[in-house]
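User: These chains co-purify. Model them together.
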Amino acid sequence: MASVTISEVRKTYGAVAVIHGVDIDIRHGEFVVLVGPSGCGKSTLLRMIAGLENISAGTIAIDDRVVNHLEPKDRDIAMVFQNYALYPQMTVAQNMSFALELARVDKATIRQKVDAAAAILGLEPLLDRKPAQLSGGQRQRVAMGRAIVRNPKVFLFDEPLSNLDAKLRVAMRAEIKSLHQRLGTTVVYVTHDQIEAMTMADRIVVLNAGRVEQIGTPLELYDRPVNRFVAGFIGSPAMNFIAGTLEAGQAGLKVASGAVIAVGPYPAELVGRQVEFGIRPEHILVSDAEGLDARVDVVEPTGSETHVVVDAAGEKLVALIRRRLPIAVGDRLSIAFEEGQGHLFDAGNGQRLALEPMDV
Amino acid sequence: MTSANLAAVQADAGRPPRDWVLIGLWLSLIVVAAIWIAPFVFIVFTSLKSTGQVMTTSAFAPPADPQFSNYASAWARGRFDTTFVNSVVITAIKVPLGLMISAMAAYALAKIPMRFGRLTLVLILFGTMIPFQVMLAPIFTLVNGFGLIDTYPGVILPYLAFGIPYQVFILHGFFRAIPHELSEAARIDGASHFTTFRRVFLPVSLPVLAALFILDFVATWNEFAMALVLLQDREMWTLPLGLSAFQGQFSRDYGQLNAAIVMTVLPATLVYLIFQRYFVSGLTSGAVKG
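Assistant: Joint model of the two components:
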């Protein structure tokens, strides 16, 4: 277990800057997920922690020891790669023992550690197989086994589940999470999949274009995104955004079509301001009472819930409905936004305008 | 449709349609194989015939009375006990050493970030572009200057100089194609560059190393021009040189000449048969997503 402190870290390739001063404080035993769209710098940041990339500026410290100039092997970390990176000519057991062998650990200890890791991951029957003889999930487990035997201070995962099919991904997700709970080792985990981030993380770091957008627990990010980017990135289906101008007298939001939509109360000083109103799909209710008139464009039943794309006042909105309602394309519905669940963002810089979910 | 017709149609349906392209390919393969095998059959048959038989029978007629003594005579007259040993010594040192140096150079150029790595690669590749015939006279002067004419190093060093560039070229391309995560995983595991090279990259590149080994073995074993220039003492001659002298001296004894040729190509054939089993595809499958 160890803490990882990333202070003002920058990365440039020639004149191109890809990380612009990142600060993250990762606590002992914490499971931190770095999430963001492709090219946001999350993998680069992880590789800098691992020592596979040079740090252009700033410091990275593991347990208060600055590791900027340490070789990867001296940082006491272990890494699991997206494409497993198993040594093809070695058996599972040899793959797992390679690092210990290089560290000149005695054979009995190596055997004991490999057996222990194999037991944790259910790899005992596979120890004599070569990677080519394993399925994707098994290879992923071997890659984790290789990390576990080293008993590192920090585990680094670089999109480890991206190559697995959907079902296996869910199973491995739970496995990694329970492994973390059992071992208690600090984990830094990179993914572009926000569901993976939400389900696994103690805290999530949302990165965009080489900058930290927000750091917080999954539900903090979900309930109180600090800007439009985080609001749109976290959550599936994504949050709905309606751009418009706030009207005087709490009338609501005047949208492009000229209609005024009721969005609940807002501070008087925001009147006349260009904003984006955000509402999550599950907070759009199909109401029997007087609401906003909407036409159903698409119906996507998933079984447990139904995603309904509606057109309301010229705006496309996605509603998530858990009840079984007889809805068909072309139907007209009356929808309402759940009280206190809306978010307001500045239309210019995307920053959150109301800190708390709006009261109604 | 009668029931017999129906049965025929059903039987046809179960058979894959005739692939004329495949048949054409097979036919051309057989023709090419025959063209390649014909001289070998000719040589082996002739090597077992007496001079009289060579003159009176067809080239492809099997020997009626095999003259195995041709081999013993050719061995003695062609001074194979000397030339064979020379060829073995030169090839046994040059081929593995050249491959080793090439593989290490290719790994360094492909996987270790270096300031002038690309320039170095281009300079090495430049070596493949110079025809060695052009270099024969300068090489002779150079080797003579070092006093290495008629010595093993005198011929092995120039062989290395001409063999390494194209091996580096091929291995560099191969190493670059190996996912960088593999070397990064080794680096995190605490492997030095040399350990990564030896324990991870060499085993993965066995097929290409085997291919290069065969090519280089055959090329070195059969090399004539440079050996002719650099080895003037008959005691230092290699097999191809011995063979050429053989031809002039016994030009009428085709049986012995061909027996000598068979003995010359046999080691190369054996090397091919031993190493061709390493030409297994998909050795890297399972390393990364696959």
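Residues 90 and 156 of chain B are 6 Å apart (CA to CA).
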